[in-house]
Amino acid sequence: MFEKHIFICNNERDPFANRDSCGSEGNQIRVELARLIHEYGVRGKVRANKCGCLDACELGPVVVIYPQNIWYGNVKTEDAEEIFKQSIQQNQIVQRLLIKPDDWENRK
Ligand code: FES
After folding, report:
1. Do the bridges between strand 4-9 and strand 63-66 make them parallel or antiparallel, or are there none, so unpaired?
2. Does the C-beta of 36 come closer than 6 Å to ligand 1?
């Protein structure tokens, strides 16, 4: 079992769909997190998985970290290193990326 499991939405909808999607940016975020996992030698302890829609599409790209149950929104590839250092290595929260309860309730 992994100590920390990161799920990165890379669901991509058609341009004419009526909801946003995390799409290719989500995939780039996952690749960068996987690179950091490798670079810092935590493979087997930490895993970065692509995943489908997490129902927070309007707040995306979305990254979720378990077991802490941290939900980040509007994540950019350049945020991946800060997420890794703060939330994976130090068990801290990157407040500026955290999806707040009001954001969640108003996402549709
Ligand atoms: S498409 Fe990423 S949360 Fe829905």
Report:
1. antiparallel
2. no
Q: Could you tell me if the CB of 9 is within 6 A of ligand 1?
A: yes
- Structural domains in the chain plus CATH codes: 4-105 (3.40.30.10)
Task: Read off the pLDDT of residues 63-107 as tens digits, 9 standing for 90 and up.
Answer: 999 999 999 999 999 999 999 999 999 999 999 999 999 999 998
Tokens 């590839």, located at residue: 77
Instruction: Kindly report whether the global pTM for this prediction surpasses the value 0.85.
Output: yes
Atom of ligand 1 nearest to the CA of 10: 2
> How far apart are alpha carbons 14 and 8 in whole angstroms?
19
Q: What region, left, alpha or beta, does residue 10 occupy, with left being phi > 0 and alpha being psi -120 to 50 degrees?
A: alpha
Q: How far apart are CA 14 and CA 105, in angstroms?
A: 25
